[in-house]
């Protein structure tokens, strides 16, 4: 029996270890602090299955390789898995990371662990999502999500051509920082206040396509008299499109979204929604890795919020709203090509 | 550590009997093997800092699993324990933010988990509903209640008492321990004593093993099962305290897999899902095995998804061992 159990465990360990290292791994002992050394960059994403974070990880890995830095990537198990992210930070410190790049699951959840890492001399940079307070990390490389929302709002407003908005809002996870910033940014861009009568309905959809579809289907039971839709990301944009299409409403509605993945840009090209706002995870990852390399070399730390930019992608440009075409978008989706 | 089902009528027990009598031995061996494998395959696994980290990383799930063990010993299961714990962290955080002192916030959080478990236990014992269904419903309700209560937002918790279990101390030789580690150890020892050395413990095993026989021998089955849920409720409240020590932030989206992780620890610890057999010391090993695997495989550079594959395979192997041991009797 013991043999079965131990052999089973050993086999499981060996099988797992054998064929599946996704990232180059470092060995050696711990050594923290900057100055004259080789950068050991650890990346902690919210999950490791979302295409956005897969992209971020691939870009960071490539940048590390190009700059001669060691690289290791870890992630939480699901959005909101603070405990998993804390575990990841601890494990990276244990392995002697000189820099930790993190997309915090919650802007306040992992601050304690980040603080411990910084006190141990590790440079900590937030990617994609800022912490609260922002000074909890050394620097942030991210989309200014308020501005991205504002760009979407301004586009939708312009596309309505002076008509009063009759708006549905398809939000992400209630209370999440990114969700709040995009939501308020959009309202600022379109010129409405939260709770305004022009908002005919809103539904949280946790970033999920089918939840968004179901939510909008339900909203459409209440009223089909709408002309504008805000979606917080592209999967929810697709779900919303399906719900609108089933009611034959796609022609009369201006829908915008945010993300800028290749699939999302293709959705815009196909006319599923009017515009999307592209963000640049590749830039975030590259700038984070470069900062890590610089820190290992000279001990110089980056500071503050560094906006990696956002661009409206549409084939129906509107006066007063700066934008790029879907052709440009497909060549640059997520800054990748 | 022993069970009420052990047989002692042969001079030399079969392997199966040996494992039935000492269900924590298998998990302990598996743990030792895992530690040895990672100690030799990485140069970062075997040091005091990392061992301390592994234990800290297993604390919340290990505490949830302690309560889960009690319930599974009565042939029940709790799918709502992590959701109940998360709700308690939110209650503690919100009360604290509202100006209530840490001690009252903590106590009211624990009262909440006891109430939840009390209701579940009552539905199981008095209304005779299957624990799986009751806790499945409770899981959905508690998850929603947590999100409603917190308005979907995470609430930071900065309070000496509520964060106390995460406080680090350094013993001689620079060994890092937290109060949470000490508390978990004490809880496991107390529960081990209660289960193996008291009449209550023997009743718990008896009602899990053969409820009808237990009833005929004069054990108040319903009362015993209800007491298990109430004790588990207290433990889940303490798990909430452990969670705020580890991550000082109450998040309605946290620990979505905590219920399954706690079941994993229990099963890896050799406790039978059919009730009546198992031990809390085995569960401690089970929780540590998961944390050791995660830490070791991470340091080997293995993708987290493959770590899940390995953990899942181990769970199935552990149940197969349980089955095999029973057949050997």
TrEMBL record, chain B:
A GO CC annotation given for this chain: plasma membrane
A Pfam family that the UniProt record links to this protein: BPD_transp_2
Membrane topology: Multi-pass membrane protein
Cell membrane keyword on record: yes
InterPro entries per the UniProt record, alphabetical: ABC_transp_permease
GO molecular function terms listed in the Swiss-Prot or TrEMBL record: transmembrane transporter activity
Keyword terms, alphabetized: Cell membrane, Membrane, Transmembrane, Transmembrane helix
Chief location bin: membrane
Subcellular location as annotated: Cell membrane
Chain segments annotated as coiled-coil in the UniProt record: none
Record field: transmembrane: 18-40, 60-83, 95-120, 132-150, 170-195, 226-244, 265-293
Name recorded for this polypeptide: ABC transporter permease
Lineage, opening ranks: Bacteria, Bacillati, Actinomycetota, Actinomycetes, Pseudonocardiales
């Amino acid at each position: 029996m013991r043999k079965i159990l131990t052999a089973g465990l050993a086999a499981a360990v060996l099988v797992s270890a054998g064929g599946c290292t996704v990232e180059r791994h470092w060995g050696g002992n711990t050594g923290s602090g900057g100055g004259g050394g080789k950068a050991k960059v650890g990346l902690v994403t919210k999950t490791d299955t979302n295409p956005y974070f897969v992209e971020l990880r691939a870009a960071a890995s490539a940048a590390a390789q190009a700059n001669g830095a060691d690289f290791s990537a870890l992630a939480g198990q699901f959005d909101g898995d603070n405990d998993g992210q804390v575990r990841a930070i601890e494990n990276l410190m244990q392995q002697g990371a000189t820099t930790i790049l993190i997309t915090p699951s919650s802007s306040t959840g992992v601050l304690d662990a980040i603080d411990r890492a910084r006190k141990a001399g590790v440079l900590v940079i937030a990617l994609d999502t800022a912490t609260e307070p922002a000074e909890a990390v050394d620097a942030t490389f991210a989309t200014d999500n308020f501005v991205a929302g504002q760009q979407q709002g301004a586009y939708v407003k312009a596309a309505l051509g002076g008509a009063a908005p009759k708006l549905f809002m398809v939000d992400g996870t209630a209370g999440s920082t990114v969700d709040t910033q995009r939501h308020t940014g959009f309202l600022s861009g379109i010129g409405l206040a939260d709770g305004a009568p022009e908002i005919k309905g809103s539904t949280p959809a946790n970033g999920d396509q089918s939840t968004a579809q179901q939510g909008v289907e339900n909203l459409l039971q209440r009223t089909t008299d709408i002309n504008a839709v805000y979606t917080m990301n592209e999967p929810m944009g697709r779900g919303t499109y399906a719900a609108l299409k089933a009611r034959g409403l796609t022609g009369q509605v201006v829908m915008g979204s945010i993300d800028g993945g290749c699939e999302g840009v293709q959705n815009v090209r196909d006319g599923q929604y009017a515009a999307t706002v592209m963000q640049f995870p590749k830039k975030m990852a590259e700038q984070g890795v470069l900062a890590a390399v610089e820190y290992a070399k000279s001990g110089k730390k980056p500071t503050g919020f560094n906006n990696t930019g956002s661009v409206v992608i549409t084939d129906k440009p509107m006066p007063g709203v700066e934008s790029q075409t879907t052709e440009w978008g497909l060549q640059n989706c997520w800054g990748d090509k | 550590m022993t069970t009420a089902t052990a047989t002692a009528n042969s001079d030399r027990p079969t392997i199966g009997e040996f494992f039935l009598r000492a269900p924590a031995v298998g998990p302990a061996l598996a743990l030792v093997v895992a530690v040895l494998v990672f100690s030799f395959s990485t140069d970062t696994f075997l040091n005091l800092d990392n061992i301390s980290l592994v234990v800290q990383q297993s604390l919340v799930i290990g505490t949830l699993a302690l309560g889960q063990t009690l319930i599974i010993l009565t042939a029940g299961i709790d799918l709502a324990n992590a959701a109940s714990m998360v709700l308690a962290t939110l209650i503690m955080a919100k009360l604290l933010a509202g100006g209530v002192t840490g001690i009252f916030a903590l106590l009211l959080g624990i009262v909440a988990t006891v109430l939840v478990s009390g209701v579940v236990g009552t539905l199981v014992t008095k209304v005779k509903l299957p624990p799986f269904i009751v806790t499945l419903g409770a899981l959905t309700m508690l998850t929603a209640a947590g999100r409603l209560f917190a308005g979907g937002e995470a609430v930071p918790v900065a309070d000496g008492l509520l964060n106390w279990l995460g406080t680090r101390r350094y013993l001689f030789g620079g060994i890092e321990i937290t109060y949470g580690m000490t508390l978990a150890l004490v809880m496991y020892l107390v529960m081990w004593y209660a289960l193996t050395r008291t009449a209550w413990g023997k009743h718990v095993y008896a009602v899990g093993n053969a409820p009808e026989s237990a009833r005929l021998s004069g054990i108040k089955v319903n009362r015993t099962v209800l007491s298990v849920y109430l004790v588990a409720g207290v433990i889940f409240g303490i798990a909430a305290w452990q969670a705020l020590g580890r991550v000082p932030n109450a998040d309605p989206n946290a620990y979505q897999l905590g219920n399954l992780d706690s079941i994993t620890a229990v099963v890896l610890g050799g406790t039978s899902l059919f009730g009546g057999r198992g031990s809390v010391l085995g569960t401690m090993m089970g929780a540590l095995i998961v944390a050791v695997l995660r830490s070791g495989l991470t340091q080997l550079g293995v993708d987290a998804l493959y770590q899940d594959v390995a953990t899942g395979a181990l769970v199935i192997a552990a149940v197969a061992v349980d089955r095999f041991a029973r057949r050997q009797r």
